Amino acid sequence: MSTKGAPLKGLLLVVLLVSHMLLTKEGVTSLPICPSGSVSCQLSLEELFDRAVKLSHYIHFLSSEMFNEFDERYAQGRGFIAKAVNSCHTASLTTPEDKEQAQQIHHEDLLNLILGVLRSWNDPLIHLASEVQRIKEAPETILSKAVEIEEQNKRLQEGMEKIVGRVHSGEVGNDIYTPWDGLPSLQLADEDSRLFAFYNLLHCLRRDSHKIDNYLKVLKCRLIHDNNC
Amino acid sequence: DLLHWPQISKCRSPEMETFSCYWTAGNFYNLTAPRIIQLLYKKSNEEDWKECPDYITSGQNSCYFNASYTSVWTPYCVQLASKNEVYDKKCFSVDEIVLPDPPVHLNWTLLNTSQTGIHGDIQVRWDPPPTADVRKGWITLEYELQYKEVNETKWKELKPRLSTMVPLYSLKTARDYEIRIRSRQRTSEKFGEFSEILYVSFSQIGIGCDHCTEEVEFPWFLVVVFGVCGLAVTVISIMLSKQPRLKMLIFPPVPVPKIKGIDPDLLKKGKLDEVNSILACHDNYKTQLYNDDLWVEFIELDIEDPDEKNRASDTDRLLSEDHLKSHGCLGVKDDDSGRASCCEPDIPETDFSASDTCDATSDSDQFKKAAEKEEDLLCLDRQDNDESLPSLANTDPQRQHRNPQSENSHPWAAFADSVESPRPSVHTQISNQNSLTSTDFYAQVSDITPAGRVVLSPGQKSKLGRAQHEGCTEQNFTMDNTYFCEADVKKCIAVTSHEENEPHVQEQSYNEDGYFTTESLTTTVANFGASTAEPPSSEMPVADYTSIHIVHSPQGLVLNATALPVPDKEFNVSCGYVSTDQLNKIMP
């Protein structure tokens, strides 16, 4: 068996690898310039921002899709959107709400804000990934996206901390953070209320990921390309 | 006429800095006294509804919110109302309603033309919509270009992209083309409006090739290429199909009930062979199974000197530790499937990949061979009309049988590795037995308790077997002859309740009933119980014979040092009881 099956298995393996490569999502599997663990290798700030923007875009993309899927599957006919003048747990953080404010805020403050928002989502994302499994007949796609978002969120935080380390002249502020207390609402017994809680959370996630994506792009254009993207 | 209420048709932000809402007035207006329609809005954190700040800038039936009124990620609600009536309501946030303006300043340049001049490549360029602040990164746009020949109806689309230029290849220079572009925010799904159409005409720059002949359209080349490829694929697949491997790869064999190491055909035939096979997990049997010649030889020898030969082989088998190790088959396998006959249910009969227990390939082969045999190994005696029980007696003449068996011990040992290690007590017993190999003894099952315990009596030549054919009740279950083949048992059962006389292995595959119909045994035991309630004789050293406490593990045999016939009424149906023959063989 071994001799005869080996070339066949090898061929299958190659086919699988190639197809995996072709199907991989754009923007996530960029080749590392710096092999992990190397101390002396220094990525340029431009490269760091590029990666951060890619990650943030990917996270927002996943959040959008996840929200759309959830909306399609669970929210139809329940009137969630009418109720969804929702407030997200990150609303307490004062973030720029239009272009003027985004232009005026200092880049260090904006970086800290971004980090704060990312940190505030650590907890909800973990619980989202675990609680979404309890939804009746949760599609695998939603679940896998939740897990993926949580993972990418961590990576983005690491990247942001690196950027902040490079850009900051002073201390890195660790204090921007909003706790999340929405876990009980994700575990409500009443299915409607529970689904509404999920809807809210996913809506907030989409919004916040869009915010972060935008802020990072603004910063990138400001710091790297001198407002001339 | 249907009555149309005023309705908010859409709200849109072209650049994520301002937004406008549009509505339709409906024909309600005309029918009654003119009412004033208002658009009220409210941010999520506010209580009061406010009125639209600008009804004019965006046109009629619209409301324009300039930058000072726009907060991007804040939820808004707008409602269309008159004095006391709400017609429509919408809630959204500005980042969700971004629909950019179309790109501007489309132009094209020629990249190159083909040698024949029939085709040409162009590069199309454009600028982002002026309202969108792409430079500062406030909004990121992607663009979709569509083009077609002037007299066509269907537009060809290119994939959306971020850059503001794109090449178009292989356009026919003889034709004119139309190009249009639209944009959307990068993570949205909806596109904005199309730009103005760009006309591409090669003749204008003097490259048009009106007199060029049309190229032949029929793709001969493609036909040939695909034909050859298809043929090659077919040929290869035909070639490959001869290989059973590939066939198995593509069409994996449907799992059928099978016992590891035993050919399902055996099961079909319903011979005791199956049992043998299972038992064949042990070395002894393996030897027998492997080698037809050996088997034949064995049979012959048996005819000559049945007792001697049998005993020797049996003894050896029993004594050999490998029996126990490879006892994965014998052992009661705690199989949830309920089919837990002794052996591992997975026999790779067609699949020659090694199975875990009851060593795969060679075993299965051997099993097959063994299965073929009419006589079940256990009841080898039977053929001799003598002992139905292959005795454990080790005699030299038996050595030859022994040898193959010892050889087989290795494969069996292989099994052994995969199966649980046998109970220590068994080993002890076995080792004891090994030392006694030279002694002429074999364990006879003097009694089988319903609990699955086999009470072994000192081995002595027994004139079992044939005598038992007559019927259960007639059998004389003395200590000497308390060995009975499964076949015999079955016969007994047949007499009582079942049909067949013959040593059939259960036709079923290894299920509860399968192996050695414990029920049948129970019946048998019940029948015999009274008569054969002899305790293991004191003749034998106690250590030699023990009652087998059948356990469910594959290794199953736990030998109790004390051989007490304890007639429990419960049988381990799940693993069945191995026929006494086998037990004997297994037993030290």
Task: Describe the structure in brief.
The complex is a heterodimer of chains A (229) and B (588). Chain A is mostly helical. Chain A is 66% helix and 0% strand.
Task: Give the topology, please.
The complex is a heterodimer of chains A (229) and B (588).
Chain A: H1 2-23, H2 45-75, H3 80-83, H4 99-104, H5 107-120, H6 122-131, H7 140-167, H8 183-186, H9 191-223
Chain B: E1 7-12, E2 19-24, H1 28-31, E3 38-43, E4 50-51, E5 62-65, E6 75-81, E7 86-93, E8 104-113, E9 119-127, E10 141-149, E11 156-157, E12 165-172, E13 176-185, E14 198-201, H2 220-241, H3 244-250, H4 264-269, H5 272-279, H6 283-290, H7 292-304, H8 306-319, H9 321-325, H10 361-372, H11 380-384, H12 399-418, H13 424-435, E15 444-448, E16 453-457, H14 466-469, H15 486-496, H16 518-529, E17 547-550, E18 557-560, H17 580-586
Antiparallel strand pairs in B: 1-2, 2-5, 3-4, 3-6, 6-7, 8-9, 9-12, 10-11, 10-13, 13-14, 15-16, 16-17, 17-18
Helix pairs in contact in B: 5-10, 6-7, 6-10, 6-12, 7-8, 8-12, 8-13, 15-16
Transmembrane segments (chain B): 218-240
Pfam family, one (chain B): GHBP
Region (Disordered) (chain B): 386-410
Could you explain how this protein is built, in words?
Chain A: It comes from Daphoenositta chrysoptera (varied sittella). The complex is a heterodimer of chains A (229) and B (588). Chain A is mostly helical and 229 residues long. In chain A, 66% of the residues lie in helices and 0% in strands. Chain A has a single domain, classed as Growth Hormone, Chain: A (Up-down Bundle), CATH 1.20.1250. Chain A contains 9 helices and no strands. In chain A, helix 2 runs antiparallel to helix 9 (191-223), helix 5 packs antiparallel against helix 9 and helix 6 (122-131) packs antiparallel against helix 7 (140-167). The N and C termini of chain A lie far apart (59 Å). Among the domains of chain B are: 7-97, Immunoglobulins (Immunoglobulin-like, Sandwich); 104-205, Immunoglobulins (Immunoglobulin-like, Sandwich), CATH 2.60.40.10. Chain B is 29% helix and 19% strand. Chain B has a 4-stranded antiparallel sheet with strand order 4-3-6-7, with no helix packed on it. In chain B, strands 11-10-13-14 form a 4-stranded antiparallel sheet, with no helix packed on it. In chain B, helix 6 (283-290) packs across helix 7 (292-304), helix 7 packs across helix 8 and helix 15 crosses helix 16 (518-529). Chain B is flat, with a radius of gyration of 45 Å. Chain A binds chain B through residues 1, 4-5, 8, 57, 60-61, 64, 81-82, 84-87, 95, 97-100, 102-103, 207, 210-211, 213-214, 217-222, 227-229, and chain B through 16-17, 44-45, 67, 70-75, 77, 89, 91, 93, 95, 133-138, 140, 186-187, 243, 245-246, 249, 352-353.
